């Protein structure tokens, strides 16, 4: 028998989906969203006076000896029409001249790289954060003018990897997303 409602009118039997099923559905949606593809958190800043046509020849320098991702930076810059010095050539030059000290380059070293390798920009790649526990990276990619040391553009990106994802794939995802807004030379 139907129970009367507070207004005195007989109520209708309750139909629809039980609450526990709705709760279960809601929790499963949350779980799927949490385990899904994470996006790269990124930031890109271009100097006001940056003109891609004036900075076509670049050298890419990996400042972190533990994590190599400069090859992904080189590939993205080549896709955008920049001329990039071959990585091993740059590495051999840095080593033979003893220019890379403690993961950084001082202004005289930048000027020497610029003049000897004939580049208008030096792209410095470094790891800002790394977590083995969460398999996440935060990368810094900065292009500087060799003569002045002024930053021409700065890109930063970070992402947490999925379980079983290769570190190289994660680093490539971060680099591609972070450099997406860099203007093409073409």
Characterization of this structure:
The chain is an alpha/beta fold and 186 residues long. The chain has a single domain, classed as 3-Layer(aba) Sandwich (Rossmann fold). Helix content is 33%, strand content 24%. The protein contains five helices and six strands; from the N terminus they run αββαβααβββα. The protein has helices at 19-35, 70-79, 87-97, 107-117, 167-178; strands spanning 41-46, 57-62, 83-84, 121-131, 136-144, 151-160. It has a six-stranded mixed beta sheet. α2 links the parallel β2 (57-62) and β3. The longest helix is centred in the N-terminal third of the chain and has 17 residues, at 19-35. The radius of gyration is 26 Å and the shape is elongated. The N and C termini lie far apart (79 Å). The model is unreliable at 29-37 (pLDDT under 50).
Count of helical stretches:
5
Return the CATH class. Answer: Alpha Beta
CATH homolog superfamily:
ABC-type transport auxiliary lipoprotein component
Radius of gyration: 26 Å
Which blocks of ≥5 consecutive residues have pLDDT under 50?
29-37
Mean pLDDT over the residues: 84
